[in-house]
Amino acid sequence: MAAGEGTILVGRSTGPQPKPEVLTLRLANRHGLVAGATGTGKTVTLQVLAEGFSNAGVPVFAADIKGDLSGLAAAGEAKPPFVKRAEELGIAYEPDHFPTIFWDVFGAQGHPIRCTVTEMGPLLLARLLELNDIQEGVLNIAFRAADENQWPLIDLKDLRALLTFLSENAKELSGTYGNVSGASIGAIQRALLVLENQGADTFLGEPALDLKDFMRTDREGRGFVNILAADKLMQRPRLYASFLLWLLSELFEQLPEVGDLDKPKLVFFFDEAHLLFNDAPKALLDAVEQVVRLIRSKGVGVYFVTQNPLDVPETVLGQLGNRVQHALRAFTPRDQRAVRAAAETFRQNPGFDVGKAITELAVGEALVSFLEAKGTPSVVERALIAPPQGRVGPLTPSERAAILQQSPLRGKYDEAVDNESAYEMLAQRKHLDAAPAEAAGRSEGGLSGMLGSWLGGILGGGEAAAPKGKGRSRRPPPSLAEQVIGNAARSMARKVGTEVGDAILRNVLGGLTKR
Questions:
Q1: Domains of the chain: residue spans and CATH
Q2: What is the pLDDT of residues 390-405, one digit of tens each?
Q3: pTM for this prediction
Q4: Closest by alpha carbon to 228, among 73, 388, 110?
Q5: What does DSSP assign to residue 60?
Q6: Residues forming a β-bridge with 61
Q7: Given CA atoms 371, 375, 378, 380 in this order, what sign does their dihedral have?
């Protein structure tokens, strides 16, 4: 439902001089906020924005907390309230449906979304597992050891195998990496078991998500709306928050710099945004603030949807230039502070009291302020929100199943795969460690003796040894712990004299940067 070239019609102001209230696509990557109490119309506003972006050829990602957003995939109905609202806005109501791809971390209501343990990174994983500082330090040691020894951490069994290795070799490894506490390793293992019992282990694995699949358009050039089934996911708030933050971090790391475009490459909606920041450590808040501040140069717009503007830290709130504020209730002192804070963030309109208006807004009515041509916020206006063109309400299970059958991604992510990774590598190395030392090369002479001696020298970190006479003793192959310590030492040496592009790099939220 567009109001003109390069804009999305969001509503119409109700002041003395009514006018269309539009979001300018060129400025849509300057992020936004949709706030308001429960039942005031936030979800409908989110749907109107998603439909507008889709019509403009901009793909959208949104978490569907209650299942209502799935209705985007079906045409709306010309119900009297919608027809009346369209007439008030001076437009005709035109039901429509939108190209939709369904996703589900648990794989029940959409295509599974997976990432590897390495991509999740220690910072987000520590928060997901609710680890303390000491336990998080041990987890960082595990990731460091995996990095330096090129042991891919794909799923939980890989991480468990690595933690077991750290525990069995704690004494040898503590001198290189710092104290490796057995109690901390045990606590991490128990937290992993809880995560697995909750079914969250299905999220960690392969095939990992290809972000290009979020950025699709249909044959008519409309952007796909990627809807994450989040009703079950919301029962695990930390998993929900960690997943969305990982996704945002991946977008930030993988997408190239594009500057200011005529329209975003992708718009990302964070519903129930308060869950992202509850009990988050300062390091994580700083990382989120950095990503939000810089990701607009990648062509991504981020929109936070929450009940209370105070749910979003000020450093992040200051980055949100496009705002739709639905009604707030001022029953408690915190509610009253929220009303004042919301009112003060708008560019004031001398025609009405903004703070008073926030408490008087009807359902489907909001205060709106969008960025104008020069990037400055417009004067706040009281507006009626446009009616959605898609269905308001959830799809039936059979309707959802039919859309999944026709999905362009059908079959790509549905089956998990188990590639060789840290679990298999550590098991193989452990088996070799247990074999008799002389099994590395039974013959002292000939080609096999030369290769065995040379390989032993390389694995030991020293120079390749020349074949010795029969009366000389052979150095036994190094243990796995010795190899890890040797790899760590060589890695540190390489970093001293190597360019940054060749070093191990981690992104702002802790996952490995893809190069």
A1: 5-98+210-394 (3.40.50.300), 115-201 (no CATH)
A2: 999 999 999 999 999 9
A3: 0.84
A4: 110
A5: E
A6: 226, 268
A7: positive
